[in-house]
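Entry 12.
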Amino acid sequence: MQNIGREQRAQILVEALPYIQKYHNKIVVIKYGGAAMLNEALKRQVMGDIALLHLVGIRVVLVHGGGPEISDLLNRMGKRSEFIDGLRVTDRETAEVVTMVLAGKINKGLVALMETFGRHAIGLSGLDGQMIMAAQKEERLGFVGNITSIDPSPIETVLEHNYIPIISTLGCDANGNVYNINADTAAARIAAALGAESLISMSDIPGLLRDVSDENSLISKVSADEVPVLEEQGVISGGMIPKVDCCVEALRGGVRRVFILDGRVEHSILIEVLTDAGIGTMFTNESHQAQGAKEADA
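Predicted 3D structure (tokens):
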């Protein structure tokens, strides 16, 4: 901002105003993970951006993972991490480590960091108030869970008191077993349960690419109906399939817009939410024809 003139600064604020009005008092769920969690400068920047959104009246819910930090602690314990189809095999000891890292170190660290920006936050996990109920996904994966239900009331209570909920993705069953839950899945289900305006999924890629080897081949808009076709064409493949499926699940659950954006880009959240430019890939329930008709009528 130091190299930006006064007129440009004013224009940035003017451009942001309609977006602030559109999102005022609306819920935006942000799934936080990847490089933006590991880089301390980026982490501080992300928390600052969320603090700004909260300050202008946007009700932000932050959902986080923490896979690399879990692996790091397991390595220091002399316990090898094992993955099947991208999912961490979670025996009982590993489940205890996952709980310590997600609900403890990472969650409370993010809460403390948010407080440095003058915004009050409360750390929650899916265990609190049985927010995320789960069942075992596969026996061979151990304590890895499928979500069976979401109770958004603990999050809503925090929002009603003007705090920022910061949620770690753990689930439980009626017998008290704790399950490791995929953060993308949890964020999608939470966003749907809250009736969120938008879900933003921070990733280590620019968004959905038509050619994975060319970062300039970004697809900026995708309708939910196009997803099966893009999967058949191989545009959506590998690890992007479950991520995009979570986007579609959120849309089908009532979330109006879902974004996959590059968390490695400075202020990517603000660029997406508060500017005309946008960044990453936006998923909606609207076909391109419907979008074009609306734009023509406007």
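Annotation: The chain has one domain: 24-204+212-297. The first helix runs from residue 6 to 23.
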